[in-house]
UniProtKB/TrEMBL annotation, chain A:
<keyword id="KW-1003">Cell membrane</keyword>
<dbReference type="InterPro" id="IPR005666">
    <property type="entry name" value="Sulph_transpt1"/>
</dbReference>
<dbReference type="GO" id="GO:0005524">
    <property type="term" value="F:ATP binding"/>
</dbReference>
<keyword id="KW-1278">Translocase</keyword>
<protein>
    <submittedName>
        <fullName>Sulfate ABC transporter ATP-binding protein</fullName>
    </submittedName>
</protein>
<dbReference type="Pfam" id="PF12857">
    <property type="entry name" value="TOBE_3"/>
</dbReference>
<keyword id="KW-0067">ATP-binding</keyword>
UniProtKB/TrEMBL annotation, chain B:
<comment type="function">
    <text>Part of the ABC transporter complex (TC 3.A.1.6.1) involved in sulfate/thiosulfate import.</text>
</comment>
<comment type="similarity">
    <text>Belongs to the binding-protein-dependent transport system permease family. CysTW subfamily.</text>
</comment>
<keyword id="KW-0764">Sulfate transport</keyword>
<feature type="transmembrane region" description="Helical">
    <location>
        <begin position="188"/>
        <end position="209"/>
    </location>
</feature>
<dbReference type="InterPro" id="IPR000515">
    <property type="entry name" value="MetI-like"/>
</dbReference>
<feature type="transmembrane region" description="Helical">
    <location>
        <begin position="132"/>
        <end position="156"/>
    </location>
</feature>
<keyword id="KW-0812">Transmembrane</keyword>
From TrEMBL, chain C:
<dbReference type="InterPro" id="IPR000515">
    <property type="entry name" value="MetI-like"/>
</dbReference>
<keyword id="KW-0812">Transmembrane</keyword>
<keyword id="KW-1133">Transmembrane helix</keyword>
<dbReference type="InterPro" id="IPR035906">
    <property type="entry name" value="MetI-like_sf"/>
</dbReference>
<feature type="domain" description="ABC transmembrane type-1">
    <location>
        <begin position="71"/>
        <end position="274"/>
    </location>
</feature>
<feature type="transmembrane region" description="Helical">
    <location>
        <begin position="147"/>
        <end position="167"/>
    </location>
</feature>
<comment type="subunit">
    <text>The complex is composed of two ATP-binding proteins (CysA), two transmembrane proteins (CysT and CysW) and a solute-binding protein (CysP).</text>
</comment>
Length: 357, 280, 287
C-alpha cells in the first residue's frame, strides 16, 4: 500500500511535535524515520497508524483519504517499542488475538487460526514457545512475537516503533538482518522509527531524516550519507569532525571567521601523510586505536591544539604506519564540507560531489 | 512527549467521563451541597450562636484533642511497627502484617463494643486500673484508645512501602562515614520517611475527627466531658434541630475538606518531586 | 532493603550481632505489645464474649428472626452498593487513568470526599435531602415514598460511604499499565468492548477484586451513616451493625457479641482474601 502524507501537523499543548510534513511512500518500500529524540518521528508513525490524529493535513492510503479513519479501519500492523504483548495471554493467544476479534462472519475457524499462528511462529522461528507467556521470553523473542502478532492480521503496512531499541547489541544485529530478509520475502510497505543512524543506513531503502518536527531530507542511504542537504543531516549521519571559527578558517581559505560557518569532515576523509603537501596541516599523533578492520587515530593540530579524528583502513595503516603517540604527521582536510546557516556552500564541495547534487 | 495526548484515541472517554460526572453528582456532590444549603438558611448570628454554644465548643475540644493525641501515638508506634515489619524476620510475621489492616475491615460498632468490654471498669484490662483510680472507658482516655485503633493502619501503610523501597546504600554510606545507628535513623531514614509520616498522620487525624461507631460505646457520652461532635450532630437531629445539626456539620465538613485538600496536594507534590528525581 | 539483607548486614560482627539482636527483640516486643493491646485483643474479646454463655445461646442469637432479617438487609445493601460502585469505579478509573484532561486532580479529590466526611455527616445529608423536613420530603411524602427510615436511605448512605473504594484501587494500577496493550488491541482490529474485556479487564482483575472486597466489607459493616438514616426499626430497617447496637444497649451482651462475631468473621475473611490478592499481584510483578 502506498502512503501519502500531505502537510500533516500535530501539536501537544504548546509543543509542535510534527510540523507541516509532506512525504510519499511507495508500495513495498522499506522506510526508516531517523532523528534524535523529540524530532517527531514516533509521533509521525503514530499518526500514520491512527494512534494520534493530526491537527491539520491529510493522510492518504493508496490515494484514499484515511485522515479520519480510526485505528481499526486502517488495518496497519504496529509493533510497539516495548512490544505491548498481552501479559495474561500465551504466545499462541497473543498471535491469534487479531483473528479472534474479527466479526463472526470474517472470523477464521479454529483450525485455520491454529494453522496461521503456527505458520507465523515458524516464520519468526519460535515454534517452541507457543504455550509460554510473554514474561518467560527474552527481549529478542518478544520482539519477534510482537512482529508475528502484527503480521497475523495481514496488514498492508507494517509500522515499527524503535524495533530494536530495547535489545542488546548482538541480538540487535541478528534481528536487523532477519527483518531485512523478512521484508524482502513479504514485500509489505514497512516504516520503522529509529534514532540509530547505523541501523537506518543498514536496513532501509529510503531514509527520512527528521529534526524538530520537520523532514530534513529524504533519500536512499547513499544519498543522505554522501550528499547531505544541510549541516544537521551531515552531522547526524555518521561520525564527524566539526570546524568552526579560526579552526575552520585555517583549513578552508575564504571562509570568514564567522559563527555562521561550520565545516564538517568525516574521519575517513582525513588523509594522513608523513610528508607535508599543499593545504596540509601539521599534526601530532595523540592516540591510536587499532582494533578491527579500520584504525582510528586521534591527532592534535599543532596550530591550535584541537583534536581531529581520522580513520583509515587497516591496509592503508600498514602501508603508511605504524604511528605512535607524539609522531609528527600532515593531515589533508580538503574534503571538508562547509555550511552557512545550516545550508551547504556549493563551492565548498569537492568537485566530484558538487556535480552530482 | 507522546503521552500528552491520548485524547479520543482509546474508546470510551465520553461514556466513562459522562457516567462518572453524573454518578459523582448524584451520590456525592448534590447531597453534600444540600448540607451547605441547609446551613445557609441560618442567619450568620444564628449560625455563630449554634456553633459557639458551650456544649458544641466542649465537644469540638474533646474531638480535636483526642484525635490529635491518637494520631500522634499512631505516628510513633505506627512507624515502629512498620519498621519491625519491614526490617525483621520473626515467626508469624505474615499474620501480624495482615492483621494490621483489621481496623479497616472490622465494622466500627464491633470495635466499639469490644474495646468497651476490654477497658470498662469491670473489663479485661479495665479491672486492673479501676483500683488505681484510673478510668479508661467512659473517659477521654477511652475515646483516645478507640481512635488509636481506628487510625493505626493509616500510618503503618503509609510508612511501610517507603521503608521497603529505601535503598540500603544510603545507610551503608552513612555507616562507612562513621555514623552510629541512632544517627543513621535520625539523619538518613527519618528525613526520607517524613513525607509518608505526615501523610499517615493527616489521614489518621482526619479519620479520627469524624469517627463515630467505635467511640460512641466507649465514650460514655457525657455532655461537656466525653461527647464527640458526630454524636452531638445526631443529638441535634433527634431533637429535629436540622439547621443546628447542619451548622455543626458544616464546620466539621470544612475542616475535613481542608485536610483532604492538604493531603492530596501533599501527595501530588511528593509524586511530582519523585518523578523529577527519577528524571521522567 | 529486604529484612534478610538488613539482618545479614547487622550480624557481621559478634559485638554487632548481640546489640542487634537485643534491639531487634526489643522493637518486636514493643510493636507486638502495642498491636496486641489495641488490635488483636478486641478481636479475641469478640469471639470469647460471644461464646461465653455456651454455643447454644450463640446459635440462638444468630438465628432469631430479628437477627436473620438484619443479615438479609445487610446482604441486600451490599448487593446493591458493591456492583454500583464497581461499575462506577471501573468507568471513572478508565477516564482518569487512560486520558488526559483538565481538572483531573480536582476530580480525584472530589471522588475522595466520602473518605474524608464523617459517616454521621454522610447520613445527615440524606436526611436533609429526603427526610420529612428535608428538601424533597414533602414531595416524597405526597407520593408515599419512604427513603429515610427505610431501606432506600440505608442503601444510599452505604453507596455514599463506599463510593471511592473500587476507583481508588484501580487508578494506580491502570496508570501503571499505560495504554500500550489497549492500543495494540486496537491496531489488531479489536473493537472497544473486545479491547476492554479481553485486554483491560484481565490486567486489572486482582486490583478490581481487592477493591470490591474492601467495598463489600465497609458496606456490610457501616454503622454511623446507616444509624442516622435507618430509624432503628427492629426487623425492618436494622442492618447487622445496628442490630449489634440495639442488643448491646439492651444489655444483651452475649447476643450482641454473637452478632458482632459474625461481622468480625467477615473482617477476617476480607483480610485473608486481601492477603491472597496481594500475594498474587506481588508474584505477578516479580515474574
Amino acid at each position: 500500500m502506498g502512503i501519502s502524507i500531505n502537510g500533516v501537523s500535530k501539536k501537544f499543548h504548546s509543543f509542535q511535535a510534527v510540523d507541516q510534513i509532506n512525504l510519499t511512500i511507495p508500495t513495498g518500500d522499506f522506510v526508516a524515520l531517523l532523528g534524535p529524540s523529540g524530532s517527531g518521528k514516533t509521533t509521525l508513525l503514530r499518526l500514520i497508524a491512527g494512534l494520534e490524529l493530526p491537527n491539520s493535513g491529510q493522510i492518504l492510503f493508496n490515494d484514499l483519504d484515511y485522515t479520519n479513519k480510526n485505528v481499526k479501519e486502517r488495518k496497519v500492523g504496529f509493533v510497539f517499542q516495548h512490544y505491548a504483548l498481552f501479559k495474561h495471554m500465551t504466545i499462541f493467544e497473543n498471535i491469534a488475538f487479531g483473528l479472534k476479534v474479527r466479526p463472526r462472519k470474517f472470523r477464521p475457524s479454529k483450525q485455520e487460526i491454529k494453522k496461521k499462528v503456527y505458520e507465523l511462529l515458524e516464520l519468526v522461528q519460535l515454534k517452541e514457545v507457543a504455550n509460554r507467556y510473554p514474561s518467560q521470553l527474552s527481549g529478542g523473542q518478544r520482539q519477534r512475537i510482537a512482529l508475528a502478532r502484527a503480521l497475523a492480521v495481514d496488514p498492508e503496512v507494517l509500522l515499527l516503533d524503535e524495533p530494536f531499541g530495547a535489545l542488546d547489541a548482538k541480538v540487535r544485529q541478528e534481528l536487523r538482518i532477519w527483518l531485512r530478509e523478512l521484508h524482502q520475502k513479504m514485500n509489505i510497505t514497512t516504516i520503522f522509527v529509529t534514532h540509530d543512524q547505523e541501523e537506518a543506513l543498514e536496513m532501509a531503502d529510503t531514509i527520512v531524516v527528521m529534526n524538530q518536527g520537520k523532514v530534513e531530507q529524504i533519500g536512499t542511504p547513499q544519498q543522505v550519507y554522501d550528499r547531505p542537504k544541510n549541516a544537521f543531516v551531515y552531522s547526524f549521519l555518521g561520525r564527524v569532525n566539526e570546524f568552526r571559527g579560526e579552526a575552520l578558517g585555517t583549513v578552508k581559505d575564504g571562509c570568514h571567521l564567522s559563527d555562521n560557518y561550520v565545516g564538517y569532515l568525516r574521519p575517513h576523509e582525513v588523509h594522513l601523510s608523513t610528508i607535508a603537501s599543499d593545504n596540509s596541516l601539521p599534526v601530532e599523533v595523540f592516540h591510536v586505536h587499532s582494533v578491527g578492520a579500520s584504525v582510528r587515530i586521534e591527532i592534535k593540530r599543532l596550530d591550535n591544539d584541537t583534536l581531529i579524528e581520522a580513520e583509515l583502513s587497516a591496509d592503508e595503516y600498514r602501508r603508511i604506519g605504524p604511528f605512535y603517540k607524539g609522531d609528527r604527521l600532515y593531515a589533508n582536510c580538503d574534503s571538508i564540507v562547509v555550511f552557512q546557516h545550516q545550508h551547504i556552500l556549493e563551492d565548498s564541495l569537492p568537485k566530484t560531489v558538487a556535480s552530482t547534487i | 512527549m507522546r503521552n500528552t495526548s491520548k485524547r479520543h484515541l482509546l474508546p470510551g472517554f465520553g461514556i466513562s467521563m459522562g457516567f462518572t460526572m453524573v454518578y459523582l453528582s448524584l451520590i456525592v456532590l448534590i447531597p453534600i451541597s444540600v448540607l451547605f444549603l441547609k446551613a445557609s438558611t441560618l442567619s450568620l448570628s444564628d449560625f455563630w450562636q449554634t456553633v459557639s454554644d458551650e456544649r458544641v465548643i466542649a465537644s469540638f475540644k474533646v474531638t480535636f484533642s483526642s484525635s490529635l493525641i491518637a494520631a500522634l501515638v499512631n505516628t510513633v508506634f505506627g512507624t515502629l511497627i512498620a519498621w519491625v515489619l519491614v526490617r525483621y524476620h520473626f515467626w508469624g510475621k505474615r499474620v501480624v502484617d495482615a492483621l494490621v489492616d483489621l481496623p479497616f475491615a472490622l465494622p466500627t460498632a464491633v470495635a466499639g463494643i469490644a474495646l468497651t468490654a476490654i477497658y470498662a471498669p469491670n473489663g479485661w484490662i479495665g479491672q486492673f486500673f479501676e483500683p488505681l483510680g484510673i478510668k479508661i472507658a467512659f473517659s477521654q482516655l477511652g475515646i483516645t484508645i478507640a481512635l488509636i485503633f481506628i487510625g493505626l493502619p493509616f500510618v503503618v501503610r503509609s510508612v511501610q512501602p517507603v521503608l521497603q523501597d529505601f535503598d540500603a546504600q544510603y545507610e551503608e554510606a552513612a555507616s562507612t562515614l562513621g555514623a552510629n545507628s541512632f544517627q543513621i535513623f535520625m539523619k538518613i531514614i527519618l528525613p526520607a520517611i517524613t513525607p509518608a509520616l505526615l501523610t499517615g498522620f493527616a489521614l489518621a487525624f482526619a479519620r479520627a475527627l469524624g469517627e463515630y461507631g467505635s467511640v460512641v460505646f466507649i465514650s460514655g457520652n457525657m455532655p461537656m466531658k466525653t461527647e464527640i461532635v458526630p454524636l452531638l450532630i445526631i443529638t441535634k437531629l433527634e431533637q429535629f434541630d436540622y439547621a443546628g445539626a447542619a451548622a455543626i456539620a458544616t464546620v466539621m465538613l470544612l475542616i475535613s475538606f481542608l485536610l483532604l485538600f492538604l493531603i492530596n496536594f501533599w501527595q501530588w507534590k511528593q509524586a511530582k518531586k519523585h518523578r523529577a528525581v527519577k528524571g521522567v | 532493603m529486604s529484612a534478610k539483607k538488613y539482618e545479614e548486614r547487622n550480624e557481621k560482627s559478634r559485638e554487632g550481632r548481640r546489640s542487634h539482636l537485643l534491639r531487634k527483640w526489643m522493637l518486636i516486643g514493643v510493636a507486638l505489645t502495642f498491636l496486641g493491646l489495641f488490635i488483636f485483643l478486641p478481636l479475641i474479646v469478640v469471639f470469647s464474649e460471644a461464646t461465653s454463655k455456651g454455643f447454644e445461646l450463640y446459635l440462638l442469637a444468630l438465628t432469631e428472626p430479628d437477627a436473620l432479617s438484619a443479615i438479609k438487609l445487610t446482604l441486600i445493601t451490599a448487593a446493591i452498593a458493591v456492583p454500583l460502585n464497581t461499575v462506577f469505579g471501573v468507568l471513572a478509573a478508565w477516564a482518569i487513568a487512560k486520558f488526559e484532561f483538565k481538572g483531573k486532580n480536582i476530580l480525584i479529590t472530589l471522588i475522595d470526599i466520602p473518605f474524608a466526611v464523617s459517616p454521621v455527616i454522610a447520613g445527615l445529608v440524606f436526611v436533609l435531602l429526603f427526610g420529612s423536613q428535608g428538601l424533597l420530603g414533602p414531595f416524597l411524602e405526597a407520593n408515599n415514598i419512604k427513603v429515610i427510615f427505610g431501606i432506600p436511605g440505608i442503601v444510599l448512605a452505604t453507596v455514599f460511604i463506599t463510593f471511592p473504594f473500587v476507583v481508588r484501587e484501580l487508578i494506580p494500577i491502570m496508570q501503571e499499565q499505560g495504554t500500550d496493550e489497549e492500543e495494540a488491541a486496537l491496531t489488531l482490529g479489536a473493537n472497544g468492548w473486545q479491547m476492554f474485556f479481553r485486554v483491560t479487564l484481565p490486567n486489572i482483575k486482582w486490583g478490581l477484586l481487592y477493591g470490591m472486597i474492601l467495598c463489600n466489607a465497609r458496606a456490610m459493616g457501616e454503622f454511623g451513616a446507616v444509624s442516622v438514616v435507618s430509624g432503628h426499626i427492629r426487623g425492618l430497617t436494622n442492618t447487622l451493625p445496628l442490630h449489634v447496637e440495639i442488643l448491646y444497649n439492651e444489655y444483651n451482651f452475649t447476643a450482641a457479641f454473637a452478632v458482632a462475631s459474625l461481622l468480625a468473621l467477615l473482617a477476617l475473611v476480607t483480610l485473608v482474601i486481601k492477603s491472597f490478592v496481594e500475594w498474587r499481584s506481588e508474584k505477578l510483578r516479580s515474574e
